[in-house]
Design brief:
Helices cover about 35% and strands about 15% of the residues. By secondary structure, it is an alpha/beta fold. Strands 1-6-5-4-2-3 form a six-stranded mixed β-sheet, sandwiched between helices. Helix 2 packs across helix 3 (about 100-115). The longest helix is centred in the middle third of the chain and has 17 residues, at about 100-115. About 30% of the residues are buried.
């Protein structure tokens, strides 16, 4: 059997995950000599703020700082965490019907990791989300918009709250954050970038020992990228630069399942894998 391993890198200055997979899908369609299923829109001014205003600028992103030094200097371990459709359905059922699979799995993971990192109960912890703003813009961006239309937002709780509360409460925290990402929030984010620049956003949304951050999506058309020799067997992150980053991808097991690539201190990762296995 012929197997090909491809390595892809891209800059988020150029595009976000949605546009990356749009590009790869289009590339594969060209390789198969097919018409593009979605034409790219290279209009770079659709998110432009004409008159940036400090009064209109705000972020849904508290700058949560780390007090606990556990795990400092420990070797990082990278793992692929597999969630079958059945496991995702069970987690989602516990999280509540109004929560998405993404929100439920994030809540499940956040609670486990927070417990295993052994933070003091009053330590603030955060989960950082990359939100696709294409449909949140006014007017909405074209479906084929090619560029970076992601907005970072942050859900915050104390370690004690996460350890004590039911997963449905944690999932609703995340749900409330993502529900608040409307046009007003996007507008505030864009004004902030124009007025204050990117440094403060990066400071709030880079990983540390009390933060997790998601990237990519289990909804991306990974297995539709066929260059003529069949769909991919799997997609992987070859390296993870920072602990606490969680990359979502669809699973070859089919719709509803997902695979998460994550890096954590080795001792925490071993316990996490063991717990997730026991609860599967």
């Amino acid at each position: 059997m012929f197997r090909f391993r491809g390595l892809i890198a891209h800059s988020h200055v150029i595009c976000d995950g949605t546009s990356l997979w749009h590009f790869l899908t289009s590339w594969a369609e060209i390789a198969r000599r097919e018409k593009l299923s979605l034409e790219p829109v290279h209009e770079r001014t659709l998110h432009r703020i004409e008159k940036p205003s400090a009064e209109k600028a705000f972020l849904i992103a508290e700058n949560v700082q780390e007090d606990n030094q556990n795990g400092k200097g420990e070797k990082m371990e990278l793992e692929v965490l597999r969630f079958s459709k059945e496991i995702v359905s069970k987690i989602k059922e516990r999280a509540g019907e109004k929560c998405s699979s993404y929100e439920a799995v994030c809540a499940h993971l956040w609670k486990h990791v927070t417990l295993l990192r052994r933070h003091p109960s009053d330590q603030k912890v955060s989960f950082i989300h990359a939100v696709n703003t294409r449909t949140r813009a006014r007017p909405p961006l074209p479906a084929g918009f090619f560029g970076n239309a992601a907005m970072w937002v942050v859900t915050v709780a104390t370690a004690g709250e996460l350890m004590k509360e039911d997963i449905s409460v944690t999932a609703n925290r995340i749900h409330a954050t993502l529900e608040s990402c409307d046009y007003r929030a996007l507008n505030g984010f864009l004004h902030w970038l124009e007025v204050h620049g990117t440094d403060d956003v990066f400071a709030r949304c880079m990983m540390n020992g009390v933060r997790l951050r998601s990237s990519s999506s289990a909804r991306f058309n990974v297995f539709g990228v066929d260059f003529g020799w069949g769909p991919p067997v799997a997609v992987r992150i070859p390296c993870m630069e920072l602990p606490g980053k969680v990359t979502f991808f669809p699973s070859p097991a089919g719709f509803g399942s997902m695979e998460l690539t994550m890096a954590l201190p080795a001792s925490v990762m071993r316990l996490l894998v063991s717990q997730l296995h026991m609860n599967s």
